[in-house]
């Protein structure tokens, strides 16, 4: 699936929630269930320190696609990471570089991606793109 | 007569909604809300006598100068400083600390020792670390215990004739502990060391008497005590302020300038370079008047009632742990739910209209002591109510249910 198609799916899914509680419960459940990263990759090198929560990101290439795994010590942050991974992982680097994150606004989670939120997510997205740029350079 | 419902009418912001819910504002330790009386002072300044102070011969400038200097007198009286020139207007607590730390660069030498308490805000750690780097002085730490109290037995061991400076907060921002600053000051003076007290968290709750405390430097911010942001004060004993060199150069702080030599103005202007926050200073005075009108004894009694009520209610929640259980503490509750990250709790409480602070509260050493990433901190002011605490408690219960 393309990044755009996945984003549209997410917008559809989130439109079914009636209030913030359902939306957040869904994210919390996502955060609880998904094993997002191998412990071996939860290293100092892979950590992005927000003021509020920590985020770990690991990337590797599988053929011509980038596979991301990530985690956080806060569960709501982890739920959002799960959503971001669903969008960005297993995609070609050039598509990751070109993608935007406007869908986050549409699913009502905008405040979590505010640069002043300091939960590590903004830096995480920057990091995902940096990995994509690095891998794209290798492919060229 | 203290009546919280009447008081709440003074604070327009308390009547707004957040995320569709009535605002419950429990982030008072970060900044307090502003009463109409203080806002009126700000509007009056800009409507009637906005002018640059101290230099003008025209009436407006004179009026603004009088009001600004009147605010300084209000501050002097409130803190019971001996003279008004011992009150230096600053941009806030951090500015005051940096001013003193910078001044001590010329007064410290290699091998001198300075003592910082384990309960400090980063703003009362970092400037001193920088001072130590500049001078070769050694930074020593007065430790804390599990209750969040300073270990006074260790203090005596740390003090020696090498100790030149001690800095400690009057009240811890992260835990609410009221520190025994009188004793800390007495013991420091016995070895000839000066003491700087960070009063940012204390001034909303009590009325410090700098002469009775015999403190050398006392710093605070207006915005913690119903005033605006960007203004605060540094109290310094006259002798000390004369000993410290000027901090920033500029207008206002000079007596005479030639290209060969500048002589500095007398206190307090020596430390007040440039056009100050005139409106902020005047509003700071108005905030002090407002709080004295409510009465600090009333404030202390009522806030203690809120603290006891909230502590009892919160402790009924299974798995909730309160950090900072000092015998002497103000209306601050730092807590965590077992196995749940404070950020998650704070995020959900916000959705319910409850404003708390989460994270390390700029006091990472305290979080390291407890081996936690941070806490949820609810801090109460005299305009909060028990009903609001009920909203917090049911919010925490709901967050726990959603996150477990």
From TrEMBL, chain A:
Chain ranges of the Fe-S metabolism associated domain: 12-130
Matches recorded under SUPFAM superfamilies: SufE/NifU
Matches recorded under Gene3D superfamilies: 3.90.1010.10
A Pfam family that the UniProt record links to this protein: SufE
PANTHER family tied to this protein: SUFE-LIKE PROTEIN 2, CHLOROPLASTIC (PTHR43597:SF5), SULFUR ACCEPTOR PROTEIN CSDE (PTHR43597)
Family listed: Belongs to the SufE family.
Protein name: Cysteine desulfuration protein SufE
Species of origin: Gelidibacter algens
Upper taxonomic lineage: Bacteria, Pseudomonadati, Bacteroidota, Flavobacteriia, Flavobacteriales
UniProtKB/TrEMBL annotation, chain B:
Source superkingdom: Bacteria
A GO molecular-function annotation: cysteine desulfurase activity
Family: Belongs to the class-V pyridoxal-phosphate-dependent aminotransferase family. Csd subfamily.
Enzyme class name: transferase
InterPro entries: Aminotrans_V_dom (IPR000192), Aminotrans_V_PyrdxlP_BS (IPR020578), Cys_dSase_SufS (IPR010970), Cysteine_dSase (IPR016454), PyrdxlP-dep_Trfase (IPR015424), PyrdxlP-dep_Trfase_major (IPR015421), PyrdxlP-dep_Trfase_small (IPR015422)
UniProtKB keywords: Lyase, Pyridoxal phosphate, Transferase
UniProt-listed Enzyme Commission number(s): 2.8.1.7
Species in which this protein is naturally found: Gelidibacter algens
Functional summary from the UniProt entry: Catalyzes the removal of elemental sulfur and selenium atoms from L-cysteine, L-cystine, L-selenocysteine, and L-selenocystine to produce L-alanine.
Protein name: Cysteine desulfurase
Cofactor(s) in the UniProt record: pyridoxal 5'-phosphate
Reactions the enzyme catalyzes: (sulfur carrier)-H + L-cysteine = (sulfur carrier)-SH + L-alanine
Residue stretches making up the Aminotransferase class V domain: 24-392
Any Gene Ontology biological process: cysteine metabolic process
UniProt keyword annotation of Transferase present: yes
């Amino acid at each position: 699936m393309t990044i755009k198609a996945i984003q549209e799916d997410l917008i559809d899914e989130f439109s079914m929630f009636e209030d913030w509680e359902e939306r957040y419960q869904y994210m919390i459940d996502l955060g609880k269930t998904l094993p997002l990263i191998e412990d071996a990759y939860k290293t100092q090198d892979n950590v992005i320190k927000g003021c509020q929560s920590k985020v770990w990101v690991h990337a590797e290439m599988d053929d011509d696609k980038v596979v991301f795994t990530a985690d956080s010590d806060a569960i709501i942050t982890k739920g959002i990471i799960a959503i971001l991974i669903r969008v960005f992982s297993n995609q070609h680097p050039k598509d990751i570089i070109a993608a935007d994150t406007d869908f986050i606004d549409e699913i009502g989670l905008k405040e979590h991606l505010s640069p002043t939120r300091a939960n590590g997510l903004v830096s995480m997205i920057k990091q995902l793109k940096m990995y994509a740029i690095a891998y794209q350079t290798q492919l060229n | 007569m203290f009546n919280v419902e009447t008081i709440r009418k003074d604070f327009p912001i308390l009547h707004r909604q957040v995320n569709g819910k009535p605002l419950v504002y429990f982030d008072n330790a970060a900044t307090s809300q502003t009463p109409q009386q203080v806002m009126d002072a700000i509007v009056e300044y800009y409507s009637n006598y906005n002018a640059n102070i101290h230099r003008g011969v025209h009436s407006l400038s004179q009026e603004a100068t009088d009001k600004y200097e009147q605010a300084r007198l209000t501050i002097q009286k409130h803190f019971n400083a001996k003279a008004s020139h011992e009150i230096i207007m600053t941009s806030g607590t951090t500015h005051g600390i940096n001013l003193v730390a910078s001044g001590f660069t010329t007064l410290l030498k290699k091998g001198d020792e300075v003592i910082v308490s384990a309960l400090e805000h980063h703003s009362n750690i970092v400037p001193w670390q920088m001072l130590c780097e500049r001078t070769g002085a050694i930074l020593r730490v007065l430790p804390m215990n599990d209750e969040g109290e300073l270990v006074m037995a260790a203090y005596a061991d740390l003090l020696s004739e090498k100790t030149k400076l001690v800095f400690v907060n009057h009240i811890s921002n992260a835990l609410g502990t009221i520190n025994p600053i009188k004793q800390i000051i007495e013991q420091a003076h016995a070895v000839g060391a000066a003491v700087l007290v960070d009063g940012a968290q204390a001034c909303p709750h009590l009325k410090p008497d700098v002469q009775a405390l015999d403190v050398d430097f006392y710093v605070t911010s207006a915005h913690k005590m119903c005033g605006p942001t960007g203004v605060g004060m540094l109290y310094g004993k006259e002798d000390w302020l004369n000993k410290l060199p000027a901090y920033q150069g500029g207008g206002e702080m000079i007596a005479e300038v030639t290209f060969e030599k500048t002589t500095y103005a007398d206190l307090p202007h020596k430390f007040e370079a440039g056009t100050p926050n005139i409106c902020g200073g005047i509003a700071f005075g108005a905030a002090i008047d407002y709080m004295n009108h409510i009465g600090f004894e009333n404030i202390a009694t009522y806030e203690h009632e809120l603290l006891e009520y909230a502590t009892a209610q919160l402790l009924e929640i299974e798995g909730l742990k309160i950090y900072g259980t000092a015998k002497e503490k103000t209306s601050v509750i730092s807590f965590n739910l077992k196995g749940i990250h404070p950020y998650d709790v704070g995020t959900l409480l916000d959705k319910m209209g409850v404003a708390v602070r989460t994270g390390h509260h700029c006091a990472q050493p305290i979080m390291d002591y407890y081996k936690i990433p941070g806490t949820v901190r609810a801090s109460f002011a005299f305009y909060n109510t028990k009903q609001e605490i009920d909203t917090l408690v049911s919010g925490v219960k709901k967050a726990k249910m959603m996150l477990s």
